[in-house]
Request: fold
Amino acid sequence: MSTTDASVSVPIVQEGASIEVDKAFISIREMRVHGAGRIAQLAAAALRDFTESCPSKDRDHLYKSIVEAGEKLKSARPTAVSLPNAVNYVLLQTKEAYANGSSVEGIRAATMSSAEQFVKESAQAMTRIGEIGARRIRNGDTILTHCNSEAAISVLKTAHDQGKGIKVFNTETRPKHQGHKTSVALAKHGIDVTMIVDSAVRLFMDDINKVVVGADAITVNGAVVNKIGTSQIATLAHESRVKVMVAAETFKFDPQTIYGDLVEIEERDPTEVCPKEILDAYPALKIKNPVFDITPPEYIDLIITEKGLVPPAGVYLMMKDLFNIQ
Ligand code: RUB
Reply:
């Protein structure tokens, strides 16, 4: 299988190797590959490889099989809208080809080329977000980031490469410590990085003048769903008048929120928070482990997308355009 565990800067989708849908599903569900952008790319690549290797010679059967594989991938994790958006992007072409009466090979080609296109566009988006976001970073800024966002890291690396002399604080990010990957990626890139525990953010807020985080989903009113703890950080930043910027590809925009749907917040296993022996010994002990939270638009200054900067209040118009909503 052509996935790597989620070390930043290593392509999730490597050329020449085939990705199985079941394995991709498990990798995403068990967080061997995590982060909204990476799971979207993995899902698109898995659909491409599934389509290529599917032996079906019947167009109805091929179509049904591709749609089913897509639905399975979508169900791997519930919060990051990048996952259904990636699958829907690919399936749009599958559905069009099928509806137009295309042959088995026609359906296959349409699906594979749109999956390829998604992977290519998401890599390009990452570079653009770095360029656009780095313009908002000033020489000598001290920036806080949370969790492990490729988009946020792209902004930080680009600013550093432009010689801006930034310093970064990053949280370890309980309970799965994805922040360790961020520290390593930034340190490897030569960036001055300091890791702190999540609960130390307020203590260090006086040293910080910008917050840059990623997103799993952005709702129609400009609220940002991201790793648990993001909203606490944004609240503290607001209190200290520190700017909060969110780096996110436009496939993190959630079109369903236009119709009033809520983003489902994933709740993970209690053993991520507390050792199993303790839970077994004290059955009355309750654990809550929601892994994302929602930062209201009032606490966000700017969203950095590959199509440009957008304030939270501008999300609706951008979404209308992106998803062709009348
Ligand atoms: C990852 C997380 C990241 C966003 C954005 O959570 O919250 O900030 O997914 O990442 P998890 P990216 O580790 O639970 O998937 O910018 O890489 O898409």
